[in-house]
Specification:
Layout: H1 6-10, H2 15-25, E1 30-34, E2 44-48, E3 51-58, E4 61-66, E5 80-84, E6 88-92, E7 99-100, E8 106-108, E9 126-132, E10 135-139, E11 160-161, E12 165-170, H3 174-182, H4 187-190, E13 207-211, E14 214-224, H5 227-230, E15 238-248, E16 252-259, E17 268-278, E18 281-290, H6 301-318, H7 342-353
Amino acid sequence: MAMQSSRKITSAPSLETIDQYYNAMRPFWHPVLPSEDLADGKLCGVELLEEPLVLARLNGQTVALQDLCRHFQARLSLGAIEKVAGSGDCIICPYHGWQYNAEGHCVRIPQLTPGRQVPREARVPAYHTQERYGLIWVCLAEKPRFPLPELPGLEDDRFLLGPIRRYPSWTASAPRVIMAALDDTHAPWVHGGLLGDRSHPEAPDHMVGRDGQYLKVQFIMLQPDNRALAGHGNDNQLREVQISTLVGMPNVIHFQIQPRDADGQQCMIIWQAVSPRRYNQTDTYWGSARNFNLSAPAYDEEFEKMQDLVREQDRRVVESQRPWLLPPFWTKLELPLRPADLPLIEYHRWLEELGISLAL
């Protein structure tokens, strides 16, 4: 087939393609804010799939409403939380004082003449919310496609949890960001001396399979013996590590990293969840956990600096990728290679099965 024109490859996808992508991503849980960033009595505006949301804690529960008043479309997040007789905590629109409960129903309009009822249409969409792993998660669909992913070790008392970190938005689609984390064969080239070594660029022997809502990948690879990852080490040496990767489709990835000579007694967990603010704007939340050096502070400055560097090295490459959304296999715009790229091929294939738009 003829090659696609460079203009089409480098330009933004069509509005129809963007809408298809947004609609396909709505049934999944997406992180939108660290839990600690939503204070009681305060409102917070966020964006998910180009949908403006207002987050609040009302009557002891976390709620997410569309951040647009039904009256004249003012941002509710600019308003306040007040108690309303018979309704408890409500969000008050800053423009004309319309008052919304946790279900998005307007329960009071100050301008109504006596005896007139609040119109039934005076409501805004309310969305599913959960709090787990230190994050607030939102699903925009009426029914979530999958439950919130179960991430091993993050609720295990034998592990010491590191802080939740959030990076400024990457100019890239959410699947591209997940694929960068899933792609181990780029480590010698992008992360040489940190996660890989160019004298050993050979691809690991991947074991890849599906389990419910998870893509599971296991492999053994050579990595520099970083103290930042192991709690000790010699940066001039390489070590064999066993990595077990769990992808909670489509936007959460979790790694268990164990030195082969540690007999399973030393495990580092690194995980990240991405939030598609827009088709080309993605927030990354990530954290870590370890079952060694438990007496040391949870915040390890050397480890955190290393992770910052790794993500910055990834960012500059991922932001350069085009087209913005992953092209379907049939276009042959990208040429993944077996067996080296098997995890990426299976992730890509599963995205297509889930109906997540991958067109140009």
